[in-house]
From TrEMBL:
Thiolase C-terminal domain location: 238-380
Pfam families linked: Thiolase_C_1
Lineage: Bacteria, Bacillati, Actinomycetota, Actinomycetes, Pseudonocardiales
One GO MF term attached to the UniProt entry: acyltransferase activity, transferring groups other than amino-acyl groups
Protein name (database record): Thiolase
Organism whose genome encodes this protein: Amycolatopsis pithecellobii
NCBIfam families with a match to the protein in the record: PRK06158.1
Length: 385
């Protein structure tokens, strides 16, 4: 049985101002910007919104705060918190709510001033829940991802150069995106020679720290056909949760993306070879390699070879993270909503120099925690429905 209801479609997407926007703007201000732009994109007004789905580390009671800021009183809200994967998961939640008649137009939104609020630096901070890792003083989350990278290198011979290829490919896409935060030249040697953060990951193996907000509007298939922009349909979506703390991850080289991907492809009636563009949560370079393997684009252990030689760069074997991703486009704390926005724009043919020709099917994959939560969604343009 499909895990995503048939009627749902994305009808509007937008970002707020990006990069470094403070001082003077709050996370809610960025949500307001993005929402107003998404409404204009869809041809709707704020009074059409009757569902709000959001998660934030910057303010409490997120749906209530957003609704109050926007001046609306929704009939359905959701603030499920599974890290950066939350927003990809909200697509399925919104579709279910629409099918159940709980709302008609759902707003998925996020805003963060992480760069402005922290002067570009992120510290681990005290752990709210002590774990088996605490006595070792890890710098989370990078230490956890470094463990996964080191294990992958040990088991499969993956090299630091191959990890660097992921960052270089992301930068090549970013150079085609005027909105990307980092667009300067980047080579494999640049990545390898940048300061080490947590071995084997250097600064350039790690995502950016930026400000930014995003908004996505979801409605029924029937209403979507009456609106301004071509609908982008939810074809299949699935979640998987494997652990909270990295010491409890069943296998450092295999993520829950294997399970979420299998179920999402089954729900959509598709396979990896049907995907034209893949937007993968690339908080660290190892993420992209792990997800390419676990989602079935290549065999386990072959991710390093898959990305080598520009395999996921413009003109490569698979278009991956076409905005520049979290490594070069931006990363305001949680990145999932921006993966959705880029996928929708690719399917609508709006991406200019970075547009993937004849893009009909996009895979969006969200990741939360320390490889803890995984959500995979397949999106399709008009030809898929």
């Amino acid at each position: 049985m499909p895990e995503t209801p048939e009627p749902a479609a994305i009808v509007g997407v937008a970002e707020s101002d990006l990069g470094q926007v403070g001082p003077g703007l709050s996370a809610l201000d960025l949500i307001g910007q993005a929402t107003a732009r998404a409404l204009a994109d869809a041809g709707l007004t704020k009074n059409d919104i009757d569902g709000v789905l959001c998660h934030s580390a910057f303010f409490d009671l997120p749906p209530s705060a957003v609704a109050e800021y926007l001046g609306i009183q929704p009939s359905y809200t959701d603030s499920t918190a599974i890290g950066g994967a939350s927003f990809v998961g909200y697509l399925q939640h919104a579709a279910s709510a629409i099918e159940a008649g709980l709302c008609e137009v759902a707003l998925i939104t996020y805003g963060s001033t992480q760069r402005s609020s922290s002067s570009g630096l992120v510290t681990s901070g005290p752990a709210l829940v002590k774990s088996d890792e605490t006595p070792f003083g890890p710098r989370m989350p990078v230490t956890a991802y470094a463990l996964a990278a080191a294990r992958h290198m040990h088991e499969f011979g993956t090299t630091r150069e191959q990890l660097a290829e992921v960052a270089v490919a992301a930068r090549r896409w970013a150079q085609l995106n005027p909105a990307a935060f980092k667009r300067g030249p980047l080579t494999v040697e640049d990545v390898l020679s940048s300061p080490m953060v947590s071995s084997p990951l250097t600064v350039r193996d790690c995502c950016l720290v930026t400000d930014g907000g995003g908004a996505v509007l979801v409605t029924s298939k029937a209403r979507a056909k009456t609106l301004r922009r071509p609908p982008v349909y939810l074809l299949g979506c699935a979640e998987a949760h494997t652990h909270r703390h990295i010491s409890q991850m069943p296998d450092l080289t295999t993520t829950g993306a294997r399970a979420s991907g299998e179920r999402a492809f089954a729900a959509a009636g598709l396979k990896p070879s049907d995907v034209d563009v893949a937007e993968l949560y690339d908080a660290f370079t190892i993420n992209t390699i792990l997800f390419l393997e676990d989602l079935g684009f290549c065999a386990k252990g072959d991710g390093g070879g898959f990305v080598t030689g520009g395999g996921i760069a413009p003109g490569g074997r698979l278009a991956v993270n076409t905005s520049g991703g979290g490594l070069s486009y931006g990363h305001p704390g949680m990145f999932g909503i921006f993966l959705i926005i880029e996928a929708v724009r690719q399917l609508r043919g709006e991406c200019g120099e970075r547009q993937v020709p004849d893009a009909n099917v996009a895979l969006v994959h969200g990741n939360g925690g320390v490889l803890s939560t995984q959500v995979t969604t397949l999106l399709g343009g008009a030809s898929t429905r």
